[in-house]
Amino acid sequence: MATIIDGKALAEQVTQAVAADAARLVAERGVHPGLAVILVGHDPASEIYVGRKMRQAARAGIVSFEHRLPADTPQADLLALIARCNADAQVHGILVQLPLPPHIDPARVLDAIDPAKDVDGFHPVNVGRLSSGTGGLVPCTPLGCIKLLETVIDDFRGLKAVVIGKSNIVGKPVALLLLERECTVTVTHILTRNLPDIVRGADIVVAAAGSPGLVRGDWVKPGAVVIDVGITRVAQPDGSSRIRGDCAREEMDHAGAVTPVPGGVGPMTVACLLANTLRAARATSF
Ligand code: GUN
């Protein structure tokens, strides 16, 4: 049977470690790590994610500053709020939940965040640092994927990793992190030809296509480690709905290890946001 990698338990460990370090920062320097959370509009999934992020921040001793803006907020107002957060010494991390309403240009918004407070790691300066391997804040979901992989893999060097999905939020940065660990990385996407055959060669599969059940059991090499980043709500015949990942996990008994959905990558994304916020708070408090 494949090992089930418990993302919830690992996220709790990371959160507790952040809480201990945050308490130390308060005691030794009088600095309370602070996170500004900005949500524009009422996307139901975003509301859930933002709620989770703030709840976990509170558990870790991080102060959140919540900014809920109406869906028709002008871009200029959002940029002005970001400028205020950049200038606010109590705010060490700034998170603008994506997606934004269609009249707002996400690139303009992400560019406006001070790279030192960019706890999502989406600012071009942090993207550049990641691609050149020169530090910077690293996007939370990819960082969570690596921490999950590290629970079952000691030595990444030379392993074949296949990433499914080429998004800026997950696919591209996770590929860079795997490359940094000297994996041989193949990035694939929805138009990739012979995707099952490419996945069959992989020691590590990171599935981030947002396509429920895409990766079938017979795509996965025996012993491979499968990280399932997909979170899609799927309607059931009885009218209810359930969350499904990108992998048909019931077909993966021969894998070496797999992450569950829910309870795998999701909790780690939140825990890594807390870790990034603490890192940003420490960096600016010396
Ligand atoms: N929307 C989906 N994932 C993310 C994320 O990691 N950060 C932000 N800000 N928005 C998201």
Automatic annotation (TrEMBL):
It catalyses: (6R)-5,10-methylene-5,6,7,8-tetrahydrofolate + NADP(+) = (6R)-5,10-methenyltetrahydrofolate + NADPH; (6R)-5,10-methenyltetrahydrofolate + H2O = (6R)-10-formyltetrahydrofolate + H(+). InterPro entries: Aminoacid_DH-like_N_sf, NAD(P)-bd_dom_sf, THF_DH/CycHdrlase, THF_DH/CycHdrlase_cat_dom, THF_DH/CycHdrlase_CS, THF_DH/CycHdrlase_NAD-bd_dom. The keyword Amino-acid biosynthesis applies. Pathway: One-carbon metabolism; tetrahydrofolate interconversion. It comes from the Bacteria. One of its GO terms (cellular component) is cytosol. NADP(+) binds at G165, K166, S167, I190, I231. Residues 139-283 form the Tetrahydrofolate dehydrogenase/cyclohydrolase NAD(P)-binding domain. Homodimer. NCBIfam families: PRK14188.1. Catalyzes the oxidation of 5,10-methylenetetrahydrofolate to 5,10-methenyltetrahydrofolate and then the hydrolysis of 5,10-methenyltetrahydrofolate to 10-formyltetrahydrofolate. This is Bifunctional protein FolD. It comes from Sphingomonas hengshuiensis.
